[in-house]
Amino acid sequence: MSKIRPSELRTERRSMAAKPTVNTAESWTVWKKSSMAFVGSDGFSVFDSNGKLAFRVDNYSRRNKYLLGELLLTDVVGRPLLALKPQILSLHDQWNGYSITASFKTLIFTMKQRSILKNRDDDVEIFMHRSRGGDMAESKSMEVADYRIQGCFKKRSCKIWGRSGKLVAWISRKMVSPLVILDEDVFRLVMVPGNQSELIMAFIVIMDRICRKPFNFMMLCH
């Protein structure tokens, strides 16, 4: 576990100092592993910059998204924070994110691929839903994306940009020494202060589904 959690290596600090926007950013660690030990489950355990468990996605099945239902991003004790649900019959692989308050769910964002073509690089847009005068003003908020994700998620190399063009967060491979890089199931998430960490993590969970790798059933037999 000492290799999973964020390290204080000099190499990591040097890479952070190389980018002006990272001087005050927080480096988190995302482990693509459910905290529940069910066979066939797939989830996330997210550690903050102090190495403490912050978010979980548990009992996360690799089934087809149309059979999956919704995913729940929870806090460390399992309280649901955001519900993530795929849009049925969407050419752009659209997902919707809902905040959870008591027994109510409120749509807060829509996330989808910019193009229906599967390119080498990922290009995803997120539109936040805002309420104006009690009505959902989608016509205006849907014109320009509030966030955009670019890069290659499968290679753990992509950036999240805000509406103003400023870098909000990015992911990269996790280094435990200058010569050792961890497997792609453990990666680094860096977030610029002033952004909601649970929202950024929700984007990462959906990216994992949009850019998912084929599931190797034989892995369960070992």
UniProtKB/TrEMBL annotation:
Residues 1-15 have a biased composition (Basic and acidic residues). SUPFAM superfamilies: Tubby C-terminal domain-like. Pfam families: LOR (PF04525). Signal peptide: none annotated. Residues 1-20 are annotated as: Disordered. Belongs to the LOR family. This is Protein LURP-one-related 8.
